[in-house]
Amino acid sequence: MKIIIDGNEVEAEGKKTILEVAKENDIFIPSLCDYPQLAPFTGCRLCIVEIKGRKGFPPSCGTFVEEGMEVKTKTPKIRKLRKEILELILIEHPNACLICSEKENCDDYKSTIRKVGEVTGCVLCSNNGRCELQDVVNAVKIDSVKFPSVYRDFDIKRNDPFFNRNYNLCILCGRCVRVCHEVRGASTVSFAYRGTQAVVETVLDRPLLESGCQFCGACVDVCPTGTLAERAIMHDTLADEKAETICPLCSIGCKLEIELKDGKILRSLFSKDGATNQGQGCVKGRFTIRDVIYSRKRILKPLIRVNKELEEVGWEEALDFVAKRLKKYKGKKAALITSTQTSCEESFLFQKFAREALRTENFDNLARFSPLTAYLEVAKKSGFEPDLNFKIEDISKAKIIFLIGENLTVSHPIIWLEVLKAVKAGAKLIVISPGESFLDRFSERWLQVKPGAIFYLLNFLSKTLLEKGYEYARIEGFQSFKRNLDKLNLSQISEMTGVREEDLNKVSEFLMEDTPAAFLFGMGLTQSPSGYQNISALWNLTCLTRSQIYPLGLENNLRGVLEIEHRARGRGLSFSQIASAASTGDIKALYLAGTFPPLKKANLDFLIIQDCFTT
Q: Fewest Cβ atoms closer than 10 Å to its Cβ: which of 35, 58, 280, 381?
C-alpha cells in the first residue's frame, strides 16, 4: 500500500505502524517507549502525529497504516506538544545537563567525575553518550523545563550481579517490563503503584536473584536511559571500535557485537540482525565474554611441572619438552582426547597427529556424550540417516511441543524463546521431568515421571496411541516394537512411572489432534544408565507420529566435531576405555585438548593438558 508522510509518498507492506514505516524510510519521529519485537505501548506519547481526516494527535507507534493515509509529523502544533510532553517526562529525571547551554563543550573540561555513587546529571551517568533520552532531547530541541523538578530519592539497587538499578533515572517507558514479559517470558519485573508513585519493581521488591531473573541482559539493552547500568563498563569511556563475531560459549551460535576501546573488549551485545538470536541472548554471551578473556586465572604461557610445581616457560621450550617425551610413547601406550570446543580444523589435525605422529588409534572426543550422538546411533541402527539440519525457528511453528530432560531457560535460552513463541500462538507444551522447573507454568501438562522411568513413559504413550487406533506411520522393525509394547499393562502406568493414566490419555489425544509434534530432549534423557533405551523409545514414538526430534547439544562446535568424528573415527579405545586404561597403567601418555572431568586414580607417566584455565 501507499501512504504519504510529510508530503512524501512511501510504500508500506504488511501490517505495520506509522512509526515502523517512517523508520524504514529514514523519517525521524521521536519515541522513547517503542522498541522492535515489543507490542505497541503508546506510553511516552512523543511519537504523536497528525492524520488527515482524524481528530487529535494519535501516537504513531500504535496506529497502523492504511491505504492512502496522509500523515504529518512536524507541524507547529506537534512540535509544541512534543516539547511539553518531554518536559513533563524530564520532571522526574535529572535534567540539568540535558538542558545546559554549555553541554557541547562539557567533554573538553570534565575529567573522571563519572565515578560517583549518585547520578544527578549526564556527566555523572555511566550511560552518557549511549543514552536515547539525550538523543531525543537534542532532536526535540529542549533548552528549558518550565515545570519544577522532583528527585524521587530511591536507593540504588546494587545487590544483584552484572548491573545496578537506579530508578531515579527511570522514565517509566515500560521497555524493561515488556521485554521481560513478552519476549523472555520471565516476568521478573513489573509496574508497581500508580500515578506519581509508579515505579518498576520485582515482587515484594526482592532482589532479581530471588525473583526468577535469567540475567539475559534484555532489560539493560532496551533501557533508553542509565537506569539499568552495566557494572563492568560504568567507569569506562565510550568505545572507539565495534566488531561482529559469533558467541563461542554454547552450541546456538548467537551473533555478537563487540565494543572495543584501544583494542580491548569493553562489552558484548547481541546483534539485532543475528539470524539465530535476533538481538536476544543469555547471561554467558552478554556479561561473561570480557571476564573470560581477561580473567586472572587464564593461562597465558605454557606450564611445565618441575619438582611437583608448575612453572611458566617459553613456547619453544614447552614444545621441545612435549615432543621429546612423547617419542617414548607410541601406539597402544598413547591416547588423545579432544573436546567439542575445538574447531573442525583442529579436530582434523588432532586425529592426523594421533595417527601419523603417535601412531595410535586411541583417540576420541567428548561429543560421544552428547544427545546428538546418542540420537545418531539409534537412528542409524534403525536404518535411517537422520537429518540434523533443522532450523530452530521451526520450533515456534509446532502445534505441540514435548520437552524432555532439559531446563531450556538455563541450558538453551534462545530455543526457549522459540518455544515461548509457539505457546503464545496456541501450541501445547508438554514437560516431562522428575522435578519442577520454571517451564511448568507454561505447560499444558507436566508429567512428573519417576527418576529412571522415562523409557516406560514413552513406550506407554506409544501403546496408548496404538490402542486408540492412531493412523501411525509404518516404521522399520515395527512388529518387534509392537511386541514389546504388548507386554506393557496400562493399569500399571502410575506404579511404574508416577504419571496418572488420565494424564497419559490426555497427552495422547493432543498428539492425535496436533501432529506432527516437536520433541526436544537434552542431557537429562541420555546421561543415565538407561540413556540408550530412552532414546530408542523416543525414536520409535516420533517415527510412529511422524514428528521431528530436536536433540539439544551444549558445546559450541558439537555439530562440526560430530561430522569429523563420523568420517574419521578410530578403531581404538573410546573415552571411557581410555580413562580406565589410564587408571590401570595400560596407557602411559595421555593428551587432553580441552576441559574434561577429573581422571580418578590415573596412573600415567606423562599427561599433557591443552586448556585456557587450570583445572
A: 381
What distance in Å separates the CA atoms of residue 423 and residue 401, rounded to the nearest whole number?
9
Question: In the chain, where are the structural domains located?
Answer: 2-74, 241-294, 331-368+558-610, 371-551
Q: Per mean pLDDT, which range of 102-111, 140-149, 247-256, 505-514 is the poorest? A: 102-111
List, in sequence order, every residue forming a beta bridge with 228; answer none if it has no partner. Answer: 165
CATH of the domain spanning 371-551 = 3.40.228.10
Q: Which helix (H) or strand (E) covers residue 520, if one does?
A: strand 518-521
What is the rounded CA–CA span in Å between residue 36 and residue 271? Answer: 13
User: What are residue 390's phi and psi, to 5 degrees?
Assistant: -85, 160
**Does 516 sit behind a cis peptide bond, omega within 30 degrees of 0 on the bond before it?**
yes
Residue whose C-alpha cell is 619438582 = 307
DSSP 157: B
Q: For the purposes of burial, counting CB atoms within 10 Å of the CB of 478, is it exposed (0-12), middle (13-18) or buried (19 or more)?
A: middle
Low-confidence winner among 80-89, 96-105, 149-158, 198-207 (lowest mean pLDDT): 96-105
56 Cβ contact list (under 8 Å, min separation 6): none
Structure pTM?
0.90
Contacts of 486 (CB under 8 A, 6+ apart): none
Element (H, E) at 202: strand 199-202
| N-to-C CA span, the chain | 62
Best CA proximity match to 607, nearest among 189, 310, 360, 391 = 310
Owner of C-alpha cell 536511559 = 225
Find out if CATH 2.20.25.90 is the number for domain 241-294: yes
2-74 CATH fold: Ubiquitin-like (UB roll) (3.10.20)
Strands 309-312 and 303-306: antiparallel
Q: Is the confidence at residue 472, as pLDDT, over 70?
A: no
Would you tell me how many other CB atoms lie within 10 Å of the CB of residue 81?
A: 15
Closest to 178 (Cα-Cα) out of 190, 194, 166, 163? 190
User: What gap in Å lies between CA 488 and CA 401, rounded to an integer?
Assistant: 25
